[in-house]
Write a structure and sequence with these properties.
The protein is an alpha+beta fold and 779 residues long. Helix content is 41%, strand content 10%. The protein is built from 21 helices and 19 strands.
Length: 779
């Protein structure tokens, strides 16, 4: 081992020695100040904690476009205030940062328990078994909201619990980073994630005032934590950051493919489906994305249905309520009711491969007879057996085969279906508040029709062959972009719109004529791709479509295509000219329930009649990708990433700060880094050891390997000598101490096992044990 010379460098020798003591009085090393009188570590007082909270609160407020009301914000801001406030209070009483952080964690958990326990906790805060069960129930409720929610969603108990828990995690990690890690600036990573969430949810606006406020609070936090006044460059950088964020959210399509929105980019952030009908915003967005491909035995392709909309409130269409039973598995799909035994049907085989589409509803040609390739997580929704969904899985990445049997009736079989309906179809006839002009127009268009079936065909032909035009912009320009009765009335006057308007208008007009109707939501047949045996069809987000289905006994649910310029109506949709009284009695048929579902060929009719799932309605934003899914998922990933990455990031930042320090603490910073690394690797010197004793202990670690690194041993001796010269002799250390420290660090890691190196990286113990407590030199 090299001997230490008077100037702190080494000469040949076998041990570690210290230089002769100087006459100057030693300074307490653990209280050394820099040349400018600033503390060696950033402050973590009330100003820092306040600015951390303000940054979190402002970024949380930027999510107001996703959630209704303000109660959720007060709950989240309150929990984070408790965490940071409790930590600050304990530190103000003289406790260390670790104890303060623990106090904040415990306080946050207690307050969160009080908010979400619903009276099941002891004294309102101590969780019990009933509390855990309630949390599971709240999780199920939140899942339902995530799948079905349309921004802005109503924040019920389940969703509130998820939001509060996410904020608790972010607040606790932020306090850990800012107080224990003494790196308040890094806390800006969490608000940055939160601020980005609205950009990933199609149809929601970024709340720029809150974004700007959060950025300004973070800049102030940097200024306070570093003790430096903001420079012009800092201000310009902050403004530039906001500008870049604005540019990105304005021109970069972050959203994924929401299956009922048609919004697609390549990010794969597809989220839940909400069966809404007003698809205008989605159809108007460019950059279509292929959401699925399929091969079919039907050369013309097939419509793929997601869900049926039955209930019409006068303002919007929505599915009827239905529960999925334990016996509703795909191995027991019933035949679609309402189709007479003698009605001709085709057998169509379809192999589907889902790409970016993520939806709880399965795109299927209808009515399906068998579905293979899926697990038990998928069920048919109701006895119509036409719509398939899952409460626990999504469609993304699925590969399955469907055998369906659409009707293909002869003219005689169609005539047999024009008699009176024998089933109770009131669920598909209910409609209140229809403007008289709409009722009169339906009667006028079908005045010459001999029977209800002919009337339905007349309505379809009137839309397709009349004066109507297809336009995605006219409804917006004219102020009737929706599917309620007001929009239907205005559409029939202007005669310009897209699939939602055509389908809704025909379904409403059919009900005024006494014909059971509903609306189907799904995809058009798509575009052929490939050649020969490789021929398939690609379905893009632009193929998102709605069409009406009308019920006729003997035929079941018949799909119509009134949208001008899209699709092709069934070949058998021709007027019969037969009066109902002259029609032969209908053949034997399965009496359909109001939820019966049976399609025909092109728009593969049928869907889960009253059996889809409750929705919040079919509003103009066809379901913007579930905001809660994105928000909860991104926040959850942020917390998980923080738990795995933040400790190593904090240690890396601390190491860089120490090894780039200048006089008078250059050697002290390097020495502390060596001791902390040794602690992380489980090779720390005895507590309170002098620099010479600590260096001797570390030298023993370096000599314990088969081939000791002699350069590292000499660097260790040099560093120890420079430290004592700096602390007790007043000699500023040179820049070489940083190189010596790095050489020692590499050798310490090389002398440790792979497991210890991984643990030292992901869970460094030095973050929770102040270096001042481990050495007689404040290291």
């Amino acid at each position: 081992m090299a001997d230490i010379t008077k100037n702190g460098r080494t000469a040949s020798g076998g041990g570690v020695s210290s230089p002769a003591p100087r006459t100057s009085s030693p300074r307490p090393p653990d209280r050394v100040s820099s040349a400018h009188g600033r503390s060696a570590s950033p402050p973590t007082g009330w100003a820092t904690s306040l600015l951390v909270w303000l940054t979190l609160a402002a970024s949380l407020a930027s999510l107001s476009s996703l959630f209704q009301g303000a109660g959720w914000w007060f709950a989240g801001a309150g929990v984070s205030a408790v965490v940071l406030g409790a930590s600050l209070g304990v530190r103000a009483l003289g406790a260390g940062p670790v104890l303060g952080w623990v106090a904040g964690l415990v306080s946050g958990l207690l307050v969160t328990s009080a908010l979400v326990s619903g009276g099941t906790a002891v004294l309102g805060v101590v969780p019990t078994a009933a509390t855990l069960q309630r949390l599971r129930d709240l999780g199920d409720q939140a899942t339902t909201t995530i799948v079905e929610g349309t921004a802005p969603v109503e924040v019920q108990d389940g969703l509130l619990a998820v939001l509060v828990a996410a904020v608790l995690g972010v607040a606790v990690v932020s306090d850990l980073v800012s107080t224990v890690g003494r790196l308040p600036g890094l806390t800006g990573a969490f608000p940055a994630v939160v601020l980005a969430v609205p950009s990933f949810v199609p149809g929601t606006a970024v709340r720029w005032p809150w974004v700007v406020l959060a950025v300004l609070c973070w800049i102030a936090l940097l200024a306070v934590s570093t003790g430096r006044r903001p420079t012009r460059a800092t201000a310009v950088g902050g403004v530039a950051a906001v500008g870049v964020a604005a540019l990105l959210t304005a021109v970069v399509p972050f959203g994924g493919v929401s299956p009922l929105t048609g919004v697609g980019t390549g990010t794969g952030l597809a989220t839940g489906v909400n069966p809404v009908v007003d698809l205008g915003d989605d159809l108007r967005r460019g950059a279509p994305l292929t959401v699925l491909t399929y091969r079919s035995s039907d050369a013309d392709g097939t419509y793929l249905k997601l869900v049926d909309l039955v209930d019409f409130s006068g303002r919007t269409w929505s599915p009827a309520d239905a529960e999925i039973g334990p016996d509703d598995g795909l191995d027991a799909i019933p035949d679609a009711p309402g189709i007479a035994e003698g009605t001709s049907r085709r057998v169509v085989s379809t192999e589907v491969q889902i790409g970016a589409l993520r939806s709880p509803y399965l795109p299927v040609p209808v009515p399906p007879q068998t579905i293979t390739g899926l697990d038990d997580g998928w069920s048919f929704v109701d006895q119509s057996g036409v719509t398939v969904r899952s409460t626990s899985e999504s469609t993304q990445g699925l590969d399955y085969t469907v055998e369906s049997r659409p009707v293909d009736p002869s003219p005689e079989q169609v005539v047999a279906a024009v008699g009176d309906q024998s089933s109770d179809m009131s669920a598909y006839l209910t409609i209140d508040g229809v403007p008289q002009s709409v009722t009169d127009l339906a009667a006028e268009v079908t005045a010459d029709s001999a029977n209800p079936f002919d009337a339905a065909v007349a309505l379809q032909d009137w839309f397709r062959d009349g004066d109507f035009t297809y336009s995605e912009d006219t409804p917006v320009d004219e102020g009737y972009d929706g599917n309620g009765l007001d929009a239907v009335e205005r559409f029939l006057e202007v005669k310009s719109g897209y699939c939602v308007h055509f389908a809704s208008a025909m379904a409403v007009m059919a009900r005024t004529l006494g014909i059971p109707s509903r609306m189907a939501v799904g995809f058009l047949p798509g575009t052929p791709t490939g050649f020969g045996d490789e021929t398939a069809r690609a379905v893009s987000s632009d193929d998102l479509h709605t069409w009406p289905e009308l019920y006729f006994e003997g035929l079941g649910w018949v799909p119509f295509e009134p949208t001008v310029g899209l699709g092709t109506p069934q070949s058998y949709l021709q007027e019969t000219g037969v009066e109902p009284t002259a029609a032969p009695s209908a053949p034997d048929e399965a009496t359909p329930e109001p939820s019966a579902d049976e399609p025909s060929a092109v728009p593969s009719a049928a869907g889960p009649t009253p059996g889809a799932e409750e929705t919040q309605g079919t509003s103009a934003r066809s379901g913007a990708s579930s905001p809660v899914a994105v928000a909860g998922g991104v926040l959850g990933l942020a917390v998980l990433a923080a738990l795995l990455v933040v400790p190593s990031g904090m240690r890396l930042a601390r190491r860089r700060r120490r090894l780039t320090a200048g006089p008078p603490d250059r050697a002290l910073g390097a020495w502390r880094e060596v001791l902390d690394t040794a602690l992380d690797l489980g090779a720390a010197p005895p507590s309170g050891a002098t620099p010479a004793a600590a260096a001797a202990a570390l030298d023993g670690v370096l000599r314990s390997v088969a081939r000791p690194d002699e350069e590292a041993r000499r660097a260790l001796a040099s560093l120890a000598a420079a430290l004592e010269a700096e602390r007790f002799g007043g000699d500023p250390a040179g820049v070489a101490v940083a190189d010596d420290a790095r050489r020692v660090l590499r050798a310490l890691r090389a002398s440790s096992s792979p497991g210890r190196r991984v643990a030292a990286t992901l869970a460094p113990r030095s973050l929770v044990r102040p270096s001042e407590a481990r050495s007689g030199v404040g290291a």
